[in-house]
Each structure stands twice: as structure tokens, then as C-alpha cells.
Fold:
Amino acid sequence: MTQQLIDGQWWEDEFDLSALTYPQFLAFFFDRPIVGDDNEYVLFRSGIDRFVASNPTTVVAHVQAMCRGFSELTKVYSPEQLDQGLWAVFGAGISCEQFLFDPAVDLELRIDCIESMYLPFRDFVAHSTLDARGSFYWMWWDMILHTFWGMADKFGYASLGSAKEILETMHQKALEFDYAGLSEENKQILEAVYQTLLKILALNHPACQWSALHGLGHLHHPRGPETVQRYLDMHRNELTDEDLQWVEGCRDGKIA
Structure:
């Protein structure tokens, strides 16, 4: 199915993610051979110039269904296929998470989708032997929040003179994380992420807790620092010096 979709005439230059049915969406991302990090980009993008969504609501609904049914996906696909596929869902120049922040999509659906992202952690990661930093789940919220803050930045870059000036300004703006300047809709989205991260942080598994802390470090929510500090107060004696320094970076919003 996946090979036909890629080689078919209508996918020649542009891939409309919203044209996929939900089973096709799963097959495209997860029904793949394991190729290793160096070849994943080519695996998913070979012959495709760019990915679009003529109906972004469909893509958000697919991601929501993926999260809600994640425990069933673990019975169909190997852990390696799921990990590789998730890197493509939220990366590989595809970035389905961008549609979570598209105002054309109903806000309730977008928030429900974010909240459903708790389920893969509860139903799979919390029962796994995954290393705290050795899988996609460690990067899940990093990738979503980098996209969120990038799309929330409404600075008029077109008014700048050179490509160098644009890049330098974008880099500086990315470090500002102006919560107060967010729209009310974006504040609601950020609150949904915060509440979801709280639930993941409460799961008794290092990979869940480390993923949540990583997300809180990139969230820049007003209550993020106190949340991470509470974790530090409870677990300080369990942490190595290196881990302690990293968690403090999450608290201070100063992680890469």
C-alpha cells in the first residue's frame, strides 16, 4: 500500500497527507522496514518534494486516533517501527504537529488531540524497558513545542534586509518565548500541553518523567518552573550530578 501511494502519479511532487484514510496514514508511517537514522529521511521523502494538508482537520484527527489507539498499534507494529514512524510523524520535514496550531482546525479538536498524547506514555512507555533518553518519546514534546513557538512568532521578517539578518533575528526571537504576548487561543493550547505533561510526569517510569521534564523545559509556561522544582525537591537524592544539572536547565528553560 505504501509503495503504491509513493509511486502513484498523483503523489509525484506533492503529498497531501489529508488525502490518506486513517489506515493509509498508519501504513505510510509505520509499515516500513527499519533503515537506521541516516536513511529515515530518504525512506519517507523519496520522490516527494513537499507535504501539504488540503484539509488539516483530517491530519489532526488521524494523529488523535493514533494516540488513542496506541496500545493496539503496539500489537501490530514492532517497537522499532513505532519509534521510526513517530520520528516521521513529527519530523522528517513532514511535521504533522504543525496542524495542531492551525487556526483553521477547530480548537476543541486540537486540544483533544494534545490531551490524547498522554495515552502512548500511559499505555506503552510506562510498561516498557525504554531508556529514559533512548527513543523518540524522549523528544516527543521537544519537537511539538519547537513547532509551536516557531508558529506563534508573528514578527514581520519580510521587512528585514538580508537573509543573514532574518536568520539572526529568528534565532533571537526564538529565545524570547513571550507567553504574555500569545493569543488567548495559543494560551489555551499551551495550558493543554502543560496539563498533559503533568499527567505524564506523574507516571512512575523514568522515560515518562524525563520526557515530561524535557517538555516542561521547552514549554515556557508560567507554572513550569515551580513544577520542575517540585520534582527536584522530591528526587534530588536520586539524581546524578549530570542529571541534576539537566533538570535544573529544564526548570530554568535553558535546555537545547
Observations:
- Residues 157-256 form one domain.
- The first strand starts at residue 14 and ends at 16.
